[in-house]
Amino acid sequence: MREVVIVKSTPLRGKFNAFAELVGKLVAETRDFPGCLGAYLMLAPERNEQVVMHIWETPDALEAYLTWRADRGDFLTINEFLDVEQEFKTYQLA
């Protein structure tokens, strides 16, 4: 079963562009991760929101990806830019 991940972020004021640049690089890396079928960054500067969407072949591929990101310390780096905790949701693709 394919998994879809949607992550909504609210960057600190004044950090929108820097955060978008960082996340854009991370999304590009995500596209090359085994099992990733697509990864996208969507920006809403008027609401100070950034949304990332990933599509994964399997839940196991997603789990391997999340472990890889955690091991690299990417989540700690992301947290330095956030005003509030990210909203992270997963869905099964119908």
Characterise this structure:
There is one protein chain. By secondary structure, the protein is α+β, with helices and mostly antiparallel strands. 38% of the residues lie in helices and 32% in strands. The protein has 3 helices and 4 strands. It has a 4-stranded antiparallel β-sheet with strand order 2-3-1-4. The N and C termini lie close together (9 Å). The mean pLDDT is 97.
In whole angstroms, the N-to-C terminal distance is 9 Å
> What would you call the structural class?
alpha+beta
Q: Enumerate how many helices there are, as a single number.
A: 3
Along the chain, the helix and strand elements come as EHEEHHE
Oligomer: single chain
Percent helix: 25-40%
Computed over alpha carbons, the radius of gyration is 13 Å
How would you write the strand order of the largest sheet?
Answer: 2-3-1-4
Number of strands: 4
Percent range for β-strand residues: 25-35%
What is the typical, i.e. mean, pLDDT?
A: 97
> Quick one: biggest sheet?
4 strands, antiparallel
Low-confidence stretches: none
* Shape category: globular
Topology:
Blueprint: E1 3-9, H1 16-31, E2 36-44, E3 49-56, H2 59-72, H3 74-79, E4 87-92
Antiparallel strand pairs: 1-3, 1-4, 2-3
